[in-house]
Every structure is written in structure tokens, then in C-alpha cells.
TrEMBL record:
<keyword id="KW-0489">Methyltransferase</keyword>
<dbReference type="InterPro" id="IPR029063">
    <property type="entry name" value="SAM-dependent_MTases_sf"/>
</dbReference>
<protein>
    <recommendedName>
        <fullName>Class I SAM-dependent methyltransferase</fullName>
    </recommendedName>
</protein>
<dbReference type="InterPro" id="IPR038375">
    <property type="entry name" value="NDUFAF7_sf"/>
</dbReference>
<keyword id="KW-0808">Transferase</keyword>
<dbReference type="InterPro" id="IPR003788">
    <property type="entry name" value="NDUFAF7"/>
</dbReference>
<dbReference type="Pfam" id="PF02636">
    <property type="entry name" value="Methyltransf_28"/>
</dbReference>
Amino acid sequence: MPFSQYMERCLYAPGLGYYSAGKTKFGEAGDFVTAPELGELFARCVVHAVQPVLALLGSEVDFLELGGGSGAFAEAALLALAENSVLPRRYLILEPSADLRERQRERLTAALPAGVMTRVAWLDRPPEENWRGILFANEVIDALPTTRFMIRNSEVYEEYVALDGEARLVRVDRPADALVAGAVRHVERDLGRTFEDGYRSEILPQLPYWMQAIAGSLEAGLMLFIDYGYVRREFYLPERQDGTLMAHYRHRAHNDPLHLPGLNDLTASVDFTALAEAGNSAGFGVATYLPQAHFLIAAGLQDIFEHAYEQAADDAARHRLAQQVKKLTLPDQMGERFQAMLLARGLPALPLPAELLAADQGGRL
């Protein structure tokens, strides 16, 4: 089967896939830590950045989170939205995993006031009716089943997973179909160079179709994607000969996706140029693009940190807040490796914090 199909089954096969089985994924007890798991600062910065748009769109506005994880982001975001009197009509969580959905429901029911909890609803599929509001996705694109390609004799091949004569999983290459080959040639034209023989990497030829499916009904509002990745010319560096694919197991990263299928999180970095192209094809414009550290600072991190620091119960809590800031912003942590992209459509104005617009690095795309 194509590697993308193998990855999809490893992550999402009912009852067996990484995100479908009952094992703890997030936090210290899981396999990796996401920004919302560190504490409330991340979610509060996101809320500060987007709340002017919520206020502009009025009482019929919704907030849609793709892949709710442990529910940590939803909990902190909803409490912040309630404090700032900008609660959306509905807080929607698009969560395909029944196991994660139940964990999210338990967490939010225990943590939120009843009046806030009544606004939360879970979706099996993207909204079909037109809606207005915010779509938020943290570490979602990296988990989309990716196509692996390689170049042989100047031709594009696609990586497949097969069984050898002893029923062991092996990776093999086959001539790519027109969709995959066309996507690779598009990247080469954009880069102004051809990939050399033996070059292997990832590509998401389905990304424009995924974007249209996810956001086609968002008639007015913002999409905010935060993930680890690069602009295209950095993603496909000549020296990056084997792409960006990684497996995560018990807080250790390795590069063997065939090891313990279903027990590892499989991810690939995001080509943010491709994400911008997909957004454009769906009718959205890039409002701003910048590293996570710049995004959080422009979204009020210093004031949010200082307020939380003053309210902290003891020195241990203050120390944890300081550690949050370091992990979220330092270049060797999440600050530079993670990127933020805001895409907008149907807004009469772009009421984002001035600092956020001023920090835009969209020219790098």
C-alpha cells in the first residue's frame, strides 16, 4: 500500500491506530508534549489574538478546534473567552477519535462552569452549513497521512509499504501516479531546481482538497494553524536527503515508521508554502505568518505571563510559568521550530493586534 495509506492506518484505524486506541498520548505520561499541555499561557495568547475577530462577527460566531488532543487547549481557551466576555455561540471540536473525544468530554465537564460547557459540541465531520468564526488547528497538519516520494533516473517514484517473504514490513518504491508526480514537479518549478537522484521527502498532494473540505463552509473568519515546519525552500533543502518523517514513542523520536505500527505517533514537518497555497485555493488570504515565539509575544505573552505570575499561589507555580515561557519561545525549544499562519476570508477589516501584523514574515513564503 502507499506509505500515506499505511500512515493513515497506523494513526487512525479504529481500535488499533495510534489516535484511536486507549493509550495516553499527550503529556508526561504519553509520547510527546504539545504547547497546550504546558499550561494556560499558549491558549490565552491565541484567545487574545483572535478575540477582536470574534467581537467583530457578533453573536452568531463559532470557534472550531481541529483535533482536541487532551482537551487542555479547549479548557484554557474557554475560560479565557469567558473572562473576556467573548464566548462564541458554539465551541466545536472536530475529533475523529472516540477515545479522545470521551477524554475531552470528561476533562471539560469537570473543569468548566455549566453555562460554558453547554456551548461545547463535538463533530464527526466538518460543518456543512455556512458558518462564521475561528478555525484553530495546533499540530494537525503534521499528522495528515503524507506521501513519500523519491527521485530515480530523474523520474518520480512513490514509497509503498509491503511484506517481504518472511512477512516483515519493508519499504519499496513504485512509479508515481500523475497526482503525486505533478505535485512534485510543481515544487521543483517553484524552487527553480530539480531534485537529484536518490532524493526522498514528503509531499501532501491532497492538501488543497483537505483544506476545501475543512474550511469550505467558513464564509467569514480566520483560520489559525500552528505546527512545526518550514517555508518550502527550507523544507526541501538539498542536504535534507530523507525528508522530515519522524516517529515518536515514549518521548523518544526515531526515524523507523515500520517499528511497532500503531504504537508510534508518525509525523512529518509542514511545508508552510504549500499550506498558504492550499488556503489561497480555498479562497483565503494569508493574514500573517511568523515563528511561534514571535506570534506569542505579539499576541500579548508578556502581559499574560505577568498577570498569571502575580496570581500564582506559590514559588513552584511561578517557576512552572517561567518554564512554560522558555519552552514556548526559546529557539532550541518550540519558539523557532513551530510556525503560526493566520488565513482570513470574508472580513470587512482585519482586526488583529497591530503587533501581530507588524511581525509578519509572509514574504519568506
